[in-house]
Design a protein that fits this description.
The chain is of the alpha/beta class. It contains 13 helices and 6 strands. It is globular and about 60 Å long.
Length: about 325
């Protein structure tokens, strides 16, 4: 309790310092702007119904009536982030600002909002390394601006993360992705579950990702079998398609190879996964992926595994 009170007092002190600064116009941010983390996925597949539902529930971003919010929830690897990214690019021409926040923990939220203040909105009072102050500047901008905006909180693990950064605004839209269905409740208005692909859609996705693949009856049936073995999980199907393309084998041939690894590696079941809707682990996917890498590549991945997935400096990836 004392620690929470101390944090609240510190936040209040920061806010008071900001209020004491010379006031600026409510729309001082640079518009239009966005900080989307990656380029548009030109190979995005399906999910039209979910995109339609998102657009229906987040219409408030296009007007000034009220704040609207939706959460996409489902298993890890089911494609929540890709759907959110596809929706963001779909709305890019309709909105003044789209913000992407890495929301695994409070610190990553502060960093993301700080970068929004500095690099996207270019707020005059934003200062490098002043993450908390910059976060409050962004929250204040969201509340006062007349611009049309969408904020995406990606990969939220707990309500506590959202408590410190939920916009106090009467307009705009918020989209959350989370593995936890409980997170997809208040203050969020609507929760949409993202499920695995059914066998037909999973097969179509695998065929779509497999380069120059002829849709023969035998290949289609093999694709259905592989997709079913993967329980329609998009991440796993995407990984399998990459291996099929790298090995330049047919889906039928790959299905035989996968079955061999399946018998060995699916013995190790993750406790609780069956309850969550996915009975098998992804060990098979990782085993096949790593086997095709060189020793240097595996060593590099070992180092990268210790870094934040969203905040690693680009300079670290430059080899000399």
């Amino acid at each position: 309790m004392a620690e929470r009170h101390a944090r609240a007092m510190k936040k209040m002190a920061i806010y008071q310092r900001l209020l004491s600064l010379e006031s600026s116009s409510q729309d001082s941010g640079t518009l239009p702007c966005n900080n989307l983390p990656v380029a548009q996925n030109q190979r995005f597949f399906g999910r039209k119904d979910l995109l339609r539902q998102l657009d229906e529930h987040l219409k408030a971003a296009d007007n000034q009536s009220s704040l609207s919010s939706v959460a996409l929830h489902g298993l890890g690897g089911v494609g929540k982030t890709q759907i959110a990214l596809a929706y963001a690019y779909q709305k890019l021409q309709d909105l003044d600002a789209i913000f992407w926040v890495s929301a695994e923990e409070t610190y990553s939220v502060q960093q993301s909002l700080s970068r929004i203040a500095l690099d996207a909105l270019k707020l005059p009072k934003a200062q490098p390394q002043a993450h908390q102050e910059n976060m409050i500047l962004v929250m204040d901008w969201l509340q006062k601006t007349s611009a049309k905006w969408l904020m995406i909180f990606d990969n939220v693990d707990s309500h506590e993360v959202l408590e410190h950064c939920w916009p106090a605004s009467q307009h705009g839209a918020v989209l959350v992705t989370t593995r936890d269905a409980i997170v997809a409740t208040l203050p969020i208005e609507k929760g949409l579950e993202v499920s695995e692909f059914n066998p037909d859609d999973g097969a179509d996705f695998l065929l779509y990702l497999s380069h120059n693949r002829k849709r023969s009856e035998s290949e289609t049936e093999a694709a259905k079998h592989v997709a079913s073995e993967l329980d329609g999980l998009p991440l796993a199907i995407n990984q399998m398609a990459a291996l099929i393309n790298a090995r330049r084998c047919s889906i039928q041939e790959f299905g035989i190879l996968y079955s061999k690894y399946d018998q060995r590696l699916h013995k190790e079941k993750k406790s609780g996964w069956k309850y969550l809707g996915y009975e098998h682990s992804l060990d098979t996917v990782w085993k096949l992926s790593f086997e095709s890498l060189s020793a240097d590549a595996r060593a590099c991945l070992g180092v990268l595994s210790y870094l934040s997935p969203d905040c690693a400096s680009r300079n670290l990836h430059t080899f000399r």
